[in-house]
């Protein structure tokens, strides 16, 4: 006998309401303060990457280096046709360069995970498969249970799921975490011939960005994208044209995404206890639906 997704949510909804009352009455609950501290307070200094879009020439060497470093298919970087449409990172390409025509000429923009200071993807993942390293990078680990809650929790639409793999992973830029652990720089930074990418402590990158902006008035707009957006990001950008003209979302605000869910996740402690069961249930149902679809057992 099967159970569909709606029934599952109804059953779970009843459990949350009933369980919440029991949990509050008994007082035997994980303290919200502990979770708040772990989930929202960043260490003093993160590593990051400053992208100077005024220096980028769109050579796509970074794309090739990224693919090689991550053992993914290396794109043909001589193929200019990719610039005909705006691209997003995919499961086989963790970063892309897009080209924008602006009133100040062509501008090339690197796109990948932003390594948020307080990442929505990490807050949504209670099995801690997504992790904000104390050094700054946001990485993915193999204990992922495939719930894919990280995907809609990302303000930049970055995590991608390998739907067609027998052992699917969430694919996204890790800031070359395995290289950083060996004391090396990220592959894209190492292979940029124009020094358009600078790797280092985020605080110093912001100082460098400000130095460029104020030493060359007129060459840059006075905005460092990522300094404050969604609570700050590890990737930072400077530009000669307003960011909304080169594909950036400028409507995200400065509040970190996990802050929005705090009232729900942290003030109703029983939810924390039931959340893994909820995710496992969703995951099982989703897998079952996908299996049925694959076997042609479901008609749309
Ligand atoms: S950009 Fe998205 S995937 Fe990357 S750290 Fe932020 S929330 Fe996570
Ligand atoms: S930091 Fe590493 S994984 Fe991220 S875009 Fe650069 S090369 Fe790719
Ligand atoms: S390698 Fe450097 S200059 Fe070339 S596309 Fe990438 S960021 Fe731009």
Give an account of the 3D structure.
This protein is an alpha+beta fold. The protein has a single domain (29-290), classed as Alpha-Beta Plaits. Helix content is 35%, strand content 13%. It is built from nine helices and nine strands. The protein has helices spanning 5-26, 32-40, 61-69, 120-124, 177-181, 187-190, 202-215, 257-267, 269-294; strands at residues 47-52, 96-102, 105-111, 130-132, 138-140, 160-161, 170-171, 197-201, 235-238. It has a three-stranded mixed beta sheet. Strands 2-3 form a two-stranded antiparallel ribbon. A hairpin with an 8-residue loop joins strand 6 (160-161) and strand 7. The chain is globular. Residues 1-43 and 265-271 have low confidence and may be disordered. One iron/sulfur cluster is lined by residues 113-116, 119-121, 138, 154, 156, 158-159, 172.
Using brief descriptors, characterize the structure shown:
binds iron/sulfur cluster; about 300 residues; Alpha-Beta Plaits; globular; alpha+beta; two-stranded antiparallel sheet
